[in-house]
# Entry
Amino acid sequence: MVTAMATTITTAAQDGTTAYNFLDITPSTHVYGLGGHNVSLIDDDIHLVEQNPALLGPEFEHKVGLNYMRYMGSTNFMGARYGTSINDRSAWAAGIQYFGYGSMTATDSEGNVMGSFSASDIAFSGTYSHDINDYWRGGITMKFLYSSYESYSAMAIAADLGISYYDPDTDFSAGLVLKNLGGQVKKFADNYDKLPWDVQVGFTKGFATSPFRISMTLTDLTKWHLPYYEPTTEDGKEVLKRKDSFGRNLMRHITLAGEYAPTERLYFGVGYSYKTRTDMSTYSRNIVSGFSLCAGLRVRGFGFGLALAQPHSGATTFMLNISTSINELMR
# Structure
């Protein structure tokens, strides 16, 4: 638990945010394995709705998805989502995500152990989407957030606004999302914690009959400067040096991904986030830090997804998705 909490604090410090960072953790193995962010991916994965509400559509007929993630330390995340059509141009979905951070030791101001306590966050969501025409679709997700840390609790309301473009003839898709618009309606104490609102843009491109496709997603577009600190040695002492060059700022906005899908039932993906790698600069990161992997398989009406990443040498994260269509099960 110490590793997970320390990693979370470091990442928050590098980002300049202090609360609700769990909203940045996707429940989709497909997205997590492609770098953690993707607002343009076209697939029948109901979990993609969390990234962009405009990725929901009438084609998600009675779709159900379950997710589980073994995160760093003793943290466990899990959730469920259901989506279906309203008519031939509209659809709705509902979901719940639970973020449990395990048990922690409670101490007084002098360091005396007073017992233990738990901490958790829960996100309830409802999504609506509508086809504007054959290429464009818009969507909105409303979220109710509840946090409970020891004897303290807080509540917030947020919204995601998204739009998606898809041309099946060229296998090109693009997305734009305004994420986490809203604020707290109940504070932990006297301090008001802001939501990590963001603007994200991305595209995904396939290549004719080739089984490959690539994606690029731009995040944190509400601010250009995303400085981070990296340990270095000066005069025999280890110090933290601020990194804020043009190139580093640019790369910290970009998530890159590639996929290989030899059949419609199987895919493999890899993603790279320079931001994730540099956020972990104060830890014992390794050569794979910033990279993530995913794979998906569809068998007899069920879809299975796996994702794996190792942000630093002391933390390996694993995620599992299972999805199906109620209609297929009843056939």
In short: The chain has one domain: 2-329.
